[in-house]
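Appendix B. Chain record.
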Amino acid sequence: MKRLIVAAGGGGDAVAAAMLHAALYSEDETPALILTYSWDRLIVDPVPGPRSPADFIGLRQLTPHVWAVPGNATLKPPHASMLPRLAAELSHTFALIDPYAGATGITHQLTELITRFAPESIDLLDVGGDILAHGDEPTLRSPLADALTLAACVRAEAPVRLLVAGPGLDGELPADLLRPRLGPRIATFTPEHTQTIIPVLTWHPSEATALLTAAALGARGLCEIRDAGLPVPLTAEGPTVHQVDLAATFAANRLAQAVTDTTTLDEAEARCRTVCGTSEIDYERAKAQRRSQQQTNPAVPRDLLTQIKDFEQAAVTRGTTYTTVRRLTEALGLSNEALQHLTHLNTACDSHLPASVWKLHRR
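Structure tokens predicted for this chain:
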């Protein structure tokens, strides 16, 4: 394997890694090795936090502490993961980041892969740019995963290039705040680069990577994402990829520094609470508790189209142009089955955008 791409936060970063490979390494005859968390939204995986190798059945061992996720791997109930299907549909090899030994364990995993495969390039990819956080930004919502991978890459005895794609598209740090922290632009995604992952986005719920893809396909306007309806601008800056100084990013990221020597995920999470006030796993635990106490609408409500029209009218009034299927699902209190139904409805509209990005209609 010539290319090792570390998906900084897992989830959609792993999908975007395939698009990055198409943009930067299209002449390679071999697919990439993509190292990523299995850490999905609660709408996919009802168990808070990332999955470990012990949660899977059918992994393939690459090194003593790194396992590949093949397309036929399964999860032990009640866990769920998007990685097996991703591995089945894309040509790349997806290897599992196991954060349960803290940043120290991830460093060992990364070192083993580098020793085993001697890749020509190692890229640490983050979609949105929250990896550039200092730790005190009020809009920061999911810093722990990025901080752990950042700390591990800094400690790895190999040259790692930090890349940020789609500044601001994850709805955490706004592009205006990120811009001074970015380095040179090294690529701009085009429609050609999106072709391999467009089918994936008919079922994968990543919002940031869906917006990155939509921006590459020319979408411009304001998009609401997540359960909170965060407004994210889609601009010409959206499909860009920037190289950022790894050492300087680490020196500015107080959480990455704090978790560098951690040997368990619990320890890393405790330090995240100290630096940032909370952790994303705390947020997931609280949300999972709320979900267990709330009733959702039927799988596909009979008045679904009416509910969608009402949502669209209110969103357009707010100046919104697009939303995501995930945002729509959570705003209407729908089930995971309804999410897939909405995706199919959107696909039937024959839009050139990813099926998970919903264009609002003025009425």
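Further analysis of this model is presented in Appendix C.
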